[in-house]
Design a protein that fits this description.
Layout: E1 16-22, H1 26-39, E2 41-42, E3 59-65, E4 82-88, H2 90-103, E5 105-113, E6 118-125
Antiparallel strand pairs: 1-3, 1-4, 2-3, 4-6, 5-6
Helix pairs in contact: 1-2
Length: 136
C-alpha cells in the first residue's frame, strides 16, 4: 500500500504523461520523481513517496506535462531498480523517456501503441554516475 493521494484526474492533453513507479523503495521512487520534476511540471508538489505498510507492494503515481524537450540530465544513482510505466501522447512520452534514460540506466521492457497514445514500460537502475537518492 502507499500514500499516493487520489486527486481528480487532470484533463487529457497530448503533452500529459502518467507515470506509475513500482517494484522499488520509496527513496528510489522519490529520486525518479525528483529527476522528472527538474524538467517537467508535475502534480506531485512536495509529496515525497512514503511506505505505509511493509507487507504490501507499493505503487507511486504522478502526472507530468512534457510539452518541451528537456535540457541536460545529470545521472542519478539508485539503491535498487525501479519499474516505470509511462502512458501518454507519443511525443510527450518520448520527452519524458529521454529524461529517464539520461538520469538512469534504462531498459525497455515493453510498449503498446494506440492511435493517439503510447504506453512504455522501462526498468531503471542507477546510472554509472551521479548522486545517490536522499535517504539512501
Amino acid at each position: 500500500m502507499n500514500d499516493t493521494p487520489s486527486p481528480q484526474p487532470p484533463p487529457s492533453s497530448p503533452d500529459l504523461v502518467h507515470v506509475v513507479l513500482s517494484d522499488c523503495s520509496a527513496a528510489d521512487a522519490d529520486a525518479v520523481f525528483e529527476a522528472l520534476c527538474t524538467h517537467f511540471r508535475g502534480d506531485r508538489g512536495d509529496d515525497a513517496p512514503r511506505q505505509t505498510e511493509a507487507t504490501r507492494p507499493a505503487v507511486w503515481t504522478g502526472s507530468f506535462e512534457a510539452s518541451r524537450a528537456p535540457g541536460p540530465v545529470p545521472g542519478v544513482l539508485l539503491s535498487g531498480s525501479v519499474t516505470a510505466d509511462l502512458q501518454g501522447g507519443p511525443a510527450a512520452v518520448d520527452r519524458l523517456r529521454a529524461v529517464l534514460e539520461g538520469a538512469f540506466s534504462a531498459a525497455a521492457e515493453g510498449s503498446v501503441s494506440g492511435d493517439q497514445e503510447v504506453q512504455v514500460q522501462l526498468r531503471l537502475t542507477g546510472a554509472d554516475r551521479g548522486a545517490p537518492p536522499a535517504g539512501a
